[in-house]
User: What shape does this take?
Amino acid sequence: MPWRRAASMWSLFGVIAVVSSVLVLRRPDWDRLSDLHIYYGAAQTVEAARPLYEYAAANGGPFTYPPFAMLLLRPMVALPESAVQVIWLVGTIAAVAAIAATVRGAFPVAPPHRQLVVAAIACAVLVSAPAQSNLRFGQVSMFIVLLALVDAVGLTPSRYRGVLVGVAAAIKLTPLLFVVFFLVSRRYRDAARALGAFVGCAVLAAVVLPTDSWTYWTGMMLETSRIGNLASLGNQSVHGMLMRVGVSPETLPLLWAALVALVCGTALLRARSLQLDNQPVRAAVLVGCATVVASPVSWTHHQVWTVLAAMLLVAARGVLRRVAGAALLVVTVFSLGALLDDVSTFPGLQFLLENARALGAVTVCLAGFGGIAVVAVGTARRPAGQRRGWLRAVTAVTATLACFAVLPLPAGADPTFKAYTVTDADNPRYFYYCRDVAGCAAPSAGAAVRFGVVREKTKVRVNGVVDESVTRLEYRSAPGGAPRVIPLLDLHPGQREFSFRSANMAHGRLVAYGADGRELASFTDELNP
Assistant: This one.
């Protein structure tokens, strides 16, 4: 019976939720809901009447959201952080279920099967990388998606429609793109209410936190470097992808703006068409994917919209759309760069694997949920066979150009590479090989370098010490790749330590040089224990 199958699926959702939460809570203190820890610490800072944007957690993470977000987060200090962690996990899981119920309207099923569909959507979203990232880090992204989705779909009362989008944008700026969507879709009152709510929230925050509000709106909001290394693979936005390709800092802003205008403009036109065609869920999800593409920073936990797009494609008509949806769903669940690291150093393929989520979001924005948007608009009145022919031709040309565009990427490119400095010395994830003077004793005679290797899900970390004969340490990601100089740090008296990370060391080589430039030691197999 349908209700039994639905009950079984909800039970599976509960199991996934419990297991995921337990795994999160079993993490070490320094790695448990680290973003929520930043929120909690920032709230304590405000409670103590200290500047909000001068706060930094023990791992160096600052508070990066608008001041209004702190008004909502500030009450959490009334509870112990451990209690807040549990409440946050439960709230995130509840938000996943609510998002599933909201998008259910796009799946045409008979009433007896609706709960089964909602439960299946909830399970798929919860196991995805974006949802798991929200749970692991204690992020607000799931709540932002829920607010914007409910409002854009039209589930809020008509007299208040747009307010939730404004509130979401006051917490995090990216939902402001929904205001543009309201304007393009001629939902002018919704756009006015969204802007009014956004401004009202900002004014309220300015009254309560005047100094912090001035600091944020007069410059802090543009300092994206505070958020982290934007070139890392976790940033699956167009901006991050361009940085990893190696676009020069001078060219990057103009090229990024042009691509964002093209991709988001196309997505908004397609979303308007879907909205007028009475498909509000697909329209809202498409705009959400555009926010992932447009933002300078789109970490994994921001990409819930892409998961929803994948599921809508799987449920669409046509084999091609379903296959595309299944492929996009695989990309959002798994890290292809990590799973296929043995081949990810080859030209072109490395780029595609490491930027698969960004490229998937861009493709959804350009193609909507079937057909390139611009072509679909221009051929709407042509015979069906002719429209399909044009779409296939454009798709083939686009795919061919994309392949040629990525092939020149050097085989040794490793955009996740980072060599750590003295400022990172207190982080146990980076410096784990030895903890004190005795443990970091210089290598024995004849052993110029001593190190340990830790393999994580999406990267490999190397940390060790060198003796006095080593004056330079270099790492190459692959044969022919450019050498990366590894800093030698005087962290303990008379001893030097080093630490770096790389996405893939299958073809890596670590080389130590003496004062005369002579190679003292090299390591390849040792990097892949």
Remarks:
- Residues 371-382, 403-411 have pLDDT under 50 and may be disordered.
- The CA atoms of residues 128 and 333 lie 4 Å apart.
